Amino acid sequence: MPASDDHTSPPTGTAKFPIGISQEQLRWEERPLPVGAPAPWAPNAELRVVGKPTARAGGHLEVTGRARYTADVQLPGMLHARRICSPHPHARIKSIDTTRAQQHPDFRALQLLDRSIGVPSLRDPSQELASPYPILRYVGQPIGAIAATTPEAAEEIARLVDIEYELMPFTADLDQAQRANAPLVYPGPVDMAGTAGGGGAAGGLAQHGNVRGPLRTVRGDIATGFTAAEVVVEGEFRTQVQTHSALEPHGVVADWREDGLTVYASTQGTASVQDELAEVLDLDKSRIRVIAEFMGGGFGAKFGAGSYGVLAARLSRQAKAPVRLVLDRAEEHQSAGNRPATAQRLRIGARRDGTLTAIELSSVGTAGVATGAGVGLIAERLYACPNFQSEQSDVFIHAGPGCAMRAPGFPQGAFGLEQCIDELAERLGVDPLALRDRIDVREESGALARRVERRIGAERFGWARRRPAGSDRGTLRRGLGVAQAYWPRIVRLNAACEVRLLRDGTVELRSGVQDIGTGTRTVLAQVVAEELGLLARDIVVRIGDTQFPAGPSSGGSATTASITPAAREAAAMVRRELFELVAPRLKSHPDTLAIVDGAVTSHTQPARRLPLRKAAALMKGKAISATAQRRPDYEPPAGVAVVAGLGGVQFAEVVVDTETGIIRVERVVAVHDCGRPMNPLGIENQINGGIIQGISYALYEDRHLDLATGRMLNPNFEQYKIASAWEVPAIEIALVEEYRGRSSTDASGVGEPPAIPTAASIANAVYNAIGVRIRTLPMTPARVLEALATTRTEARA
């Protein structure tokens, strides 16, 4: 077993990798190692920093209020902007008169959006009414913005812009929008690449009325599969719109100068903001700098500059002053993105032994004026089934655009799939976990880790005490449920890091990657510290700035897997150069040196040591610097499956009050894998957040649109209910270490998986408690009482 500080690559181009699941017997395999890559780390138990619970880097700044978020940026002469947005769900602008606004003494600049900005480019311009202004398709659609000297003046001046509208028919309901006579969101046929699957799809999709699709996926022959089935279960499931509701709203401060544009943004992608502004503003990217020091949450809605970023930049150029534009909470709810609503029908066939023979999925969903309202790939990829067919379609309505939200499509898909699997287990007379063990055998999707996770979770949760559905009697009924997660492992190669060792011994990491609240700063500090024999607190991490090497966008559970190998390789390059410099002073060969407890020392002669500060002082320049780019994942040996999926299983215990219909989640046990766990403390925070967000989705959150006006009735945190601290259950987390030898850190992400099975596990627990299924989210008291009443009526009949 190699020592944890042996970072040299063997001359043969191979190395011994730890392979396996931590709860199983780890083994060491000889595998190819790319030229120049550092040797594999040992398992976490043998490392000094990586894999150890580590306090959040920068956390003291956040809790003391010293962290600078976008809204905290104050620049000399800064103006404040307010958007002008549509009060109507569908209208044509006949005229805009800005006279009164421009006469206000605090007015400084005004910008109107052209037809190409503000809504997804799904329209067929040849079919639209001639107008210099964009056609308005939802309440809250931006029309333009003004800049003024104070926020209060900006609010007042925005109301002084006089706009004459021609109102047009609209539809704000998923079912009504599919009717033949429904008002069209986009006139004329549209043929564009489809995203109905909740994650993108190649090729063109037909549009019929407001329905775009279906996007079809076929494997095998479902007719043959259902003919072979001895048991068939099916169900219809509906999920609601969930708004992102990040603590920090969307916003930018744009500072346009002659030498370039600087943008402070609340963003999940500094590089994507730079790219978008460069294209829209016709600027070289080298003249645009994007900074995201701290960020108060992003669940998929904060990629790109958005229309608000474009408006702020244009206002700044016009006013020749910095401009701050931050959305308010109502704008966040109405127009800043949401998890789309879906309606799906799922049908599953199986043999008596539980073997799946066919899965058929049909879904429609609405992301308002956008696409991407599918239910994901979980039904297609999670369980082994030779015959599969899905048809997923987008339905346009006159409502704000949906967008990616923490595992786009997968929580909706799991809500249907995992309830059907539980129903199948009941029909077959087997335990739901036993059935999953039988059908969850696709090793390329991570089945081995999930089997281990189910065993660990069942023991910790006390699954053996689960009784048949509806066994509880009385007013308060207790139920236990389980659901499985699956999420594809994503790696982005546009990830680079620079590591610098300064002459005073300071170690600094720089990258354009941003920390969206997930602890990226901390993990990067751990990686560099591990490689350089230091502690995480010894590393200065500077990220979230496009002046640094390009970093990946943060999303899709891809950030840790993408950026940490680059950080490690850059640190290894710095270490090698330092050892070449120090070796003569210590009269040792560079290959015998290591950094231990802040000093360079020799394996062969430990008494010879040089504190890092003194070692760094030997350099002739001001720093030793190295930049590394994320290389592709390592090639596994022939015949070894590439595991391209992340797992996770969650158990839920609920109590249902049959008189009030209130569901209370009392306990959740979550077992998850994310490759090599880098910072267990940060991972647990992520899992806690995903579970709480999933509980809120399952029981409370719901966007309500007035079908007569198209307006959101609850665009606030008073009527838009989100789970409070009182409603958070006891959460127990177990992490599974999974070593696959995929990169120099072997890390994966964990942002998406805990959000995927939460609603499904609660739904299965509710069924176990009351003996009736709730197939519509959110599972409100009214829906529980309605289901119970229906069951009682059927029983009497």
Question: Can you tell me about this structure?
Answer:
The chain is α+β, with helices and mostly antiparallel strands and 797 residues long. The protein has four domains: 77-168, Alpha-Beta Complex (Aldehyde Oxidoreductase, domain 3), CATH 3.90.1170; 191-239 and 343-439, Aldehyde Oxidoreductase, domain 4 (2-Layer Sandwich), CATH 3.30.365.10; 442-487 and 634-797, Aldehyde Oxidoreductase, domain 4, CATH 3.30.365; 490-629, Aldehyde oxidase/xanthine dehydrogenase, molybdopterin binding domain (Aldehyde Oxidoreductase, domain 4), CATH 3.30.365. The strands form ten sheets. Strands 5-6-3-17-14-15-16 form a seven-stranded mixed sheet. Strands 10-11-21-20-19-12 form a six-stranded mixed sheet, sandwiched between helices. Strand 15 (260-265), helix 6 (270-281) and strand 16 (288-291) form a beta-alpha-beta unit. Helix 13 runs parallel beside helix 14 (559-586). The longest helix is centred in the C-terminal third of the chain and has 28 residues, at 559-586. The chain starts with 13 loop residues before the first strand and ends with a helix. Mean pLDDT is 93; it is low at 1-11 and 191-203.
